[in-house]
## 1
Amino acid sequence: MSGLTTTKAPFIESAQQNGERFIHQPYELYSEENHKAWSSLYARIQDRWQRYANPKFLDGVAKLNLDPKRVPRIEELNTFLSPLTGFKAKPVSGYIPAFIFFDCLRNRDFPTTITVRDLTTLDYLPEPDMFHDVAGHVPMHTDKAFADTLVRFGECAVSAAMVIQQLKDKEVQRERARSIIKALARFFWFTVEFGLIRDGKKGLKVYGSGLLSSYGEIAHCIESPEVQRYPVQLEWIVNQYFEINHYQPLLFIIDSFDHLFSLVDELEKWVKDGRLNNVSPGEPNVGDVDIDSFLSAKL
């Protein structure tokens, strides 16, 4: 029985075929293998969270009352999360176009995958799964400063859509959109997904969800001499390509979540000043569906 296993879930395939982006969590469909995968992932990462995760994340894990043995029920998760910051996990059937994703953040909704990786792919999965989204992302949403930063990022995306939609030449409009979206995606990657933070005398800690949900990389990103770690600089991260299929060789450090919030303020100013109109080429690829989501956004 495939249950709700990533890339093997008939329920998800049906939702996608029907054009349903936002769905419910059919909890009864989870198989015992799904619960075992969640339990295995959760159990083995505990020591590494205690050693490498930032304190706000650990506070968030405690506040969410995650079940270590069973896949979380999103409705229950939200009863703990929403009173803290107004954020809610919002189940989705798969990829959400860029503007729609960022606009969800603006409205304190976090698009959340409901499938669980297969037991044979516990170490790495290119697609997001529930362990990445719920165990990696959501505990940070319990912290007000971090949650407000995500909302601010969503507002920045709205400003970007306004700038793009004001352009008259359709070809120029699409090229500007491609560059600006690439810059926004890179900013999100190097902060929300793969960010490091200073923690006083304790040194560097992890706050990026891609690191927090990876048993191997959460240690590697702090301990390995092969990783370059630099204080965050906006001009670097918006022009730095990344690849998703290996441990990240380059990471950036923030001083605090208030610092991160101020970086989003600066990012929005750069959008309006045209400083993201021609960022360096390379990953991530920005497809037509993402560009169209900005061009068609109702503002």
## 2
Amino acid sequence: MSTEVLKEILAYIDEHIYEKISLVELAEMAGYSPFYFSKLFSEIMGMPITGYIRIRKLQYALGSLLEGKKVLDVSLMYAFDSHEGFTRSFTQLFGSTPSKVKKYLASYEVPGYCIPNIEGRRTHMGLDKESLIDNMHQIVYEVLRTSFEEVNAGFCTEISITLFEDGRVKIADNGRGIPLSQNAKVNQQVLDKILSGHPILSLEYTQMGDFSQCGMQVVNSLCESLQINVYRDGYCYSQDYVRGIAQHDVTCCEMEHPSGTEIVLKPDSLIFGDAKFSVDMIKEWVAENNVSEAIVRVELKGY
């Protein structure tokens, strides 16, 4: 299947996103039998045509929810069989329920459809293991940059990096901590400005290019879970995110704890699979950034 034909198919899906889209109709457009069309589409796009259509409908549905539309109306708008089925599919894909997204996601723009580079019938998606591992480590480096800023400003003397067997990593420092207060609404606005992202799916990820200094919002979007704890002025402020979406109001409790920031994150396994963090890669990057080993401590737990 040529790039031109594939582009026509993907554009047609977006143009008819509110309708039930027929496999037979798409196959006729491409000039193949339904079986052979499905086979070619899966080879090129890395997923079945039915799965791709479902993802596009849910991406558009997410945008409609943020426009203020009701969950039931959105499920009908995008031709889902039931409200329950829509909610279940939405939650499986984005990690948050439609109602939670409406409340906590600040903004979302439906990404353009992605056309992979095609050579014959093989697709080069840029998802080789080496690139995946390097990009996954860039997530940690971006978090570390914020701690290094505190070091360079003279407010941080300790940074700990803990790698867990389940793929999580904890980065904690004894800097000043993000300036949060007793005002929960303002706290959410502050954290949203720094961290709020949106779910990034595998096809969108392959089009992102260079990951160096990608920013904390992108980091959060690429994590299936991220928890931040900010210790400041005798209080602990906490928020949990799933694929960039806040999961609740910022919590606050009194706690005797040195000031600082702690982030526990797990990269999205739907993108990075079961790739593991490397202590050697992290230590090498720290050394390249001229931060003393006396300040940064890296340890393993459960490996």
